[in-house]
Amino acid sequence: MIPLYYYTILSAVLFVIGLIGFLIRRNIILLFMSIEVMLNAVNINLVSFSSYYDSLDGQILSIFVMAIAAAEAAVGFGILIAFYRNKNVIDSDKADLMKW
Amino acid sequence: MKQVVFFILSIISIFSALMVISRKNVVHSALSLVLLFFSTSGLFVLIGAELVAALQIFLYAGAIIVIYLFVIMMIDLRKGTTDDIGTMPKMFIVGAGVLFFAEIIYLLSKANYSGIKDIYSGEKIKELGGMTGVLAKIMYTKYLYPFEIVSLILLIAMIGAIVLAKRADKK
């Protein structure tokens, strides 16, 4: 049997990798991919805890997380396409229309 | 035996996550993301969550990666982005990330894992007729209301994506 803390440590590592990727890249597509990495880490946590406590609530919650990730990708890419059409770049630093 | 499989899968997933955030070419990042999803789904199978593993492959490695590749195809990546911040902010961000990781590990070492076990052990699920049936029964009774909300969110996301990506009327 694999101890529970193996899974939590793996999930923490993946979450921090996603966080660093979100902060150091400027390409908006890469930012979405980093969000997917972080959501994946959260899913690992939910499923491992639900399995170790013989409960199924965590697995259902992880299915909801997947559905929300799909919705987020759809809306985010809609915004990205509109942004690219206006500015011809996909650099997140260039999105400064509402900056003082 | 299980631990060896776990270590192999976790090394693959950490490696592919690092590849996702470090490649210059976005297509390589997307393919590393597929590798990450597959290894994560292997981890789910290992812990006994087969339905979530299958959905991970259908939804993430199938649907979402296709959206990513479509968007990459439509955008001119060569002049679209410079993707460069200086070395100093990069070091600062990596340091902050390592600090955050240390904080998580500290909290995990302080937590106590003495929760109350629910009834759905492996034998009980086998007795009730398999993971999918049990999960569906819970989802359509206890979690019916969140399920309906998620369906509404998906509908709104679909309409929103169409409205946002539609070309504005020509003058």
Can you tell me about this structure?
- The complex is a heterodimer of chains A (100) and B (171).
- Chain A is mostly helical and 100 residues long.
- Chain A has one domain: Helix Hairpins, CATH 1.10.287.3510.
- Chain A contains three helices and no strands.
- Chain A has helices at residues 4-24, 28-52, 57-87.
- Chain B has 171 residues and is mainly alpha-helical.
- Chain B folds into two domains: 1-86, NADH-ubiquinone/plastoquinone oxidoreductase chain 6, subunit NuoJ (Four Helix Bundle (Hemerythrin (Met), subunit A)); 122-171.
- Helix content of chain B is 80%, strand content 0%.
- Chain B has helices at 2-22, 26-47, 50-74, 77-80, 87-110, 122-128, 131-141, 144-165.
- Chain B is extended.
- At the A-B interface, helix 1, helix 2 and helix 3 of A face helix 1, helix 2, helix 3, helix 4 and helix 5 of B.
The assigned CATH architecture of the largest domain in chain B is Up-down Bundle
Biggest beta sheet attributes of chain B: none
Low-confidence stretches of chain B: none
CATH domain topology of chain A: Helix Hairpins
The biggest beta sheet of chain A is recorded as: none
**How would you classify the quaternary structure?**
heterodimer
Number of separate domains of chain A: 1
Q: Percent helix among the residues of chain B?
A: over 70%
* Computed structural class of chain A: mainly alpha
β-strand percent of chain A reads under 5%
What spatial form of chain A do the alpha-carbon principal axes imply? elongated
Radius of gyration of chain A: 17 Å
Task: Write down the secondary-structure element order of chain A.
Answer: HHH
Low-confidence stretches of chain A: none
What's the pLDDT, averaged over the residues of chain B?
Answer: 88
Order of helices and strands of chain B: HHHHHHHH
> Which two protein chains have the largest interface (Cβ within 8 Å of the partner's Cβ), and how many residues from each?
A-B, 72 and 86 residues
